[in-house]
Amino acid sequence: MHQLRKSALSGAVALALLAPLHVSAQAPSVPAQNQDTGGIRGRVLNTATGEYVRNAEIRVQGTGIVVYSEEGGLFRISGVPAGQATLTVRYTGLNDASRTATVTAGQVASLDIALEAPSYTGTRAGDATELDAVRVVGSFTGQDIAIMERRAAMNAKNVVPADTYGALTMGDVGEFMKSMPGISLDYTEVDATAVRIGGLDPKYSTFTLDGGRMATATSNNNSGRQNSFEQMSVTGIESIELNNTLTASMDADAPAGNINLRSKYAFDRTRRDFVFQLGAVASSDSKFFSRQYFPDDRKHATVYPSGQIGYADVYMDGRFGVAFNASYNANYVQQERIQTDWAYYADGRVLPYRLMWRPGPKMTSRTAANLSTDFRINDEWTASLRSAYSLYDVEYFNQYTYLYLGTTTTSYATPDSTPTHLVVNPVGTGGSSPRLRTEYSHRYAATPTITLAPKLEFKGETLDVALRGNYSTSEFNFRDSSEGFFQRTDSWLTRLGFTAERASEGSQAWYLQQTAGRDWSNPANWNLDDDIGNNVRNNESDARNRQTGLNLDVKKELEFGGHPFTLLTGLGTRTNDWETDESHYQQYQYVGPNGDLTQRDPAAAVPWTEHYQFGFLNLDAGNVDSQGWRADNNYAMYEIYKAHPDWFVPDTVGNLKRVFDNNKRVRETVNAAYVEGQTRWGDARFDLGLRYEQTETEARTAVIRPASEVEAAGLSTSTVEGLCYQYHCVDGKPTYSTRKGRYEDFFLSGGVKYDFSERLVGQLAFSDSILRPDYGNLGGIVSINDDTMIVTVPNSRLRPEHSTKYFAGLQYYFEPAGVLGASYYRLDIEDMQATGFTVNPEDVGFDPEEYAGYEFRSARNVPGTSTNEGLILEYSQQLAFLPGALKGLSLRGSYTRIRPDGERVNLPEEVANWGLGYRYGRLDIQVNGNYQSDYRVSGLSNTPTTANNGVLYRAARQMWNLSVNWKLSENFDLQLAGRNVFDEPDVIYSNVRSRVQRYDRYGSMWNIGIRGRF
After folding, report:
1. Based on C-alpha coordinates, what's the Rg of the chain?
2. Where does the signal sequence lie (predicted)?
3. What is the C-alpha to C-alpha distance for residues 311 and 324, in angstroms, rounded to an integer?
């Protein structure tokens, strides 16, 4: 027996939403007039832009009939009394229009409506010219699209056209979304990689393309569910929809909300559209007229090309529409980092125990394409296909170079040392001595993503039926040796003495002086005194995700008690297949031609670069650049390996165990059904929906014997034979089992929207949702500790988290385009998932006799409710009421305050965005900024006295972006876009703001180009 899951609050909201339907049913009935009614079909055109508009509000005077235009400006009205019918059409930023149609009973009349822009020209000297007025009106199109869609939506929704914030440097979604109200971003180095809605972890949100689910195999996500900006582009995207609450027709696994990328649509236009852009991308580190050496010891350009092309047109007498867009962007940045790791010693001293310097050249490119095709079979049937492709690839040379002054428990520094004056004398040997060590990470990564969303749609007068398919596949492929290099080739210099000084705890300008040991400026001196162990590594890996789905949606327009009622219902099925292969983590000892296992042979030195010099471009690193430290040559080392593999001693058993342990697969099937009703009662609109989802999971896990059983067989797990016996190998491959799970859920959603006036709108909305377990919990490896008699197992029966989100908003809309709004939300989460709990074997799908006498530990759901609350304030307005040239000004800003019920990791509690725009005559300029407050990055188990760095926080950060467009002629524009134009650093500190642990600078990025439109 499956019960409907809803809290008392959501139940009360549901009853309130049902009340108007009950009253409507009891109200005196209005005589049916179907025999005396007809219909009206048509399109709504914006004459200022030549584009058809969706979400225009269309009212039939003298009736309660209100409809909104759809894609391509199409509208359909049924139940219109026969005779003369007057339609009033409203669209923000444009003049209202009234048109009359003659309606014949049982027939459908045609009526196209053209909306005109208000005039902003003046008659006095200095007032705007007609051309200027056109430019001003054109600047409204972004905001008016967003406003009308927001007003028409029944859920809590925000929509931002893709050109709202001007030109972008690399065309990625993260650049765009960082200016949207109510969200914050996660960054990986220079790139925005994931979104947080209301401060929640990115896995609480989902991404769709034209309603089709996007696959999720991305970097740093081999156990999670989050989408990443690496796998998507704004190329071919008309607008981005942020759904703060869900409707019954949406997948329910987005507690924070859903983000939908909506493709451009050929039928929105009245004429052919051809756009191209050619430009160049450079960073503040780029050399415009020369090439420079990189750590591969070869010269590279640091200014890269960018280009974009777009084409849209309709054929076959307006029945076949095509919109195609493609882009290429590439860049170079120098990701520089200086790191000071702090030790909080038992005697109360706080000192650095390790310093790190990392120059990090990085080359990135993104190729993207989007194709939208639509074929109108007749007036009622349409077949369409939305498709997108994105390839993000990157190569980075992160040259982590560590200077060890001790450990988190023992300092090698003299007793009189301070955080700004460190004296270290040579003590101990090898890893127990002060040492300088390279621990590079050199990788190439590619993220190809393909999404296809076909649809067959029927649109009658009162009935819509849509059959939607979806296919999306995404991969994340880390590569090193297949690209001709090793990921790591470690070297070290041990038994050192040195001093390190700086002006303050927050300063990154270290001044070093070597006082003992081999000369660290001579690269041939490294790896001569102590055995470094496994110092060569390749670590290729693959993560893949494939999502397929099929949905049937039905929409029926009805009338009850004289009130319109829209019934929506549908069925759907979705398959999610995720797998990861991290088995290529292979490590070796480099022993050279003489096979010296002590690794002290000068002939076994790791090769170093001849031309590239280790050093910084942006940061003031004190005198580090003048120390002459070596830069490992990962390419040269791999060439040696190809020629002499016998000079490398593999970690045979460790390498094999990693192959066995890191091959995971999870498969989910979600079958769904929903029903939803919408109605209007005066100035209020109501929505209530119910969704059902049945989830079936299959997780692949390895079958492993305890080490005691291996020993009883006369074998050892430290040998290949014993390891294969432990993993039940057949033909050298481990045995896997498939563990299954199944559960069902119901989800309520709904809302009410009330027009207090033409400009003031209030909204209440809620939605129930689910967060399914991470893939790692479903398909991880079994770990057996024979000393503690503990078996750590994945829990394929782990229940998902369940949540309810409540949203309340009030918006006041300005003319010609603008909004002032305040919103409040609350998210209650039950069945939170946590790891490390003792469980019954049967509860996680294991036979207790498999490991008799052992304690089982796994992830489980914990009782209680976690609550997040938030407040969002927003303002945007086109200042067209100002005199003369000031009409082109626009302002926008938003502030989000998040209040969790406890401290959270990676949650900025304050986020703000702002922007100033000016568009007039030939000039269009946008200045945007965003701010995120301090937030914790250490795990919640850390305390201020935790030996390794205490509690780490990311410092508050604000970044500024710039977009400038100058119209050269009617068809050509000169564009400039800048990102992080003031090169704001990324800072992490330990316990207190002055105690900087990590300081990163990436430079600013710029894209300049010519844009043509015909």
Report:
1. 31
2. 1-25
3. 5
- Span 814-828, mean pLDDT? 92
The neighbouring-strand residues paired with 735 are none
DSSP lists the bridge partners of residue 488 as 537
Count how many Cα atoms sit within 13 Å of the Cα of residue 120 in the half-sphere of its side chain. Answer: 31
Q: What is the DSSP letter of 189?
A: T
Identity (one letter) of the amino acid at 390?
A: S
What one-letter code names the amino acid at 762? Answer: G
Please check whether residue 769 is in contact with residue 252, taking contact to mean a CB–CB distance below 8 angstroms: yes
Angle 461-761-97 (CA atoms, 0-180°, nearest 5)? Answer: 50
| φ, ψ dihedrals at 950, nearest 5° | 60, -130
* Sheet bearing 421-424, strands edge to edge: 421-424, 497-501, 511-516
Whole-angstrom distance, CA of residue 143 vs CA of residue 890: 10
Helix (H) or strand (E) holding 688: strand 684-702
pLDDT of residue 434: 96
**DSSP structure string for 897-931:** EEEESS--SS--SEEEEEEEEEEETTEEEEEEEEE
3-state secondary structure of 639: helix
Residue 483 is given by DSSP the state G
Q: Give the residue among 1006, 789, 842 at the shortest CA–CA distance from 306.
A: 1006
Q: Which two tokens stand for residue 442?
A: 């050199």
**Type of residue numbered 607:** P
Residues 686-744: tens digit of each pLDDT: 999 999 999 999 988 888 888 889 999 999 988 999 999 999 999 988 998 888 888 99
Amino acid at residue number 622: G
Rounded to whole angstroms, the Cα distance separating 741 from 794 reads 12
**Residue in 133, 148, 141 with CA at minimum distance from that of residue 57:** 148
Report how far residue 543's alpha carbon sits from residue 216's, in angstroms, rounded to the nearest whole number. 9
CA torsion, ordered 813, 819, 824, 830, to nearest 10 deg: 100
What are phi and psi for residue 807, nearest 5 degrees? -140, 130
The CA distance from 79 to 660, in Å, is 66
Identify the bridge partners of residue 826 per DSSP, sorted by sequence position.
806, 869
Dihedral angle, C-alpha 101, 104, 106, 111, nearest 10 °: -20
CA nearest to 686, candidates 752, 783, 595: 752
Who's near 10: CB < 8 A, 6+ residues apart?
A: 748, 766, 768, 804, 806
Percent of the chain with pLDDT over 70: 91
| Cα(392)–Cα(155) distance, integer angstroms | 33
DSSP conformational letter for 34: G
**In the predicted structure, residue 961 carries a pLDDT above the cut 50:** yes
User: Dihedral, CA atoms, 600, 602, 605, 610, nearest 10 degrees?
Assistant: 150
Q: C-alpha angle 489/493/496, rounded to 5°?
A: 155
pTM for this entry: 0.87
For residue 682, which of 38, 40, 16, 66 has the smallest C-alpha distance? 66
CB-based burial, 109-133: b 16+ in 10 Å, e otherwise: bebebebebeebeeeeeeebeeebb
For 339, residues 6+ apart whose C-beta sits below 8 A from its C-beta are 354, 355, 356, 357, 358, 997, 998, 999
8 Å CB contact between 314 and 372: no
The domains located in the chain, with CATH, are 268-1013 (2.40.170.20)
The pair of three-digit structure tokens given for residue 626, joined into one six-digit string:
């003048």
Amino acid of residue 711: E
Find the angle CA(474)-CA(476)-CA(477) to the nearest 5 degrees.
Answer: 130
CB 448 within 8 A of CB 474: yes
For residue 857, report the phi and psi dihedrals to the nearest 5 degrees.
-125, 145
d(CA 479, CA 477): 6
Separation CA 195–CA 237 (nearest Å): 18
Residue 605 has pLDDT above 80, yes or no: yes
**Cα 344 from Cα 419, distance rounded (Å):** 12
pLDDT digits (tens, 9 = 90+) for 132-156: 544 545 445 567 787 888 888 889 8
- Which helix H or strand E contains 459, and what residues bound it? strand 441-459
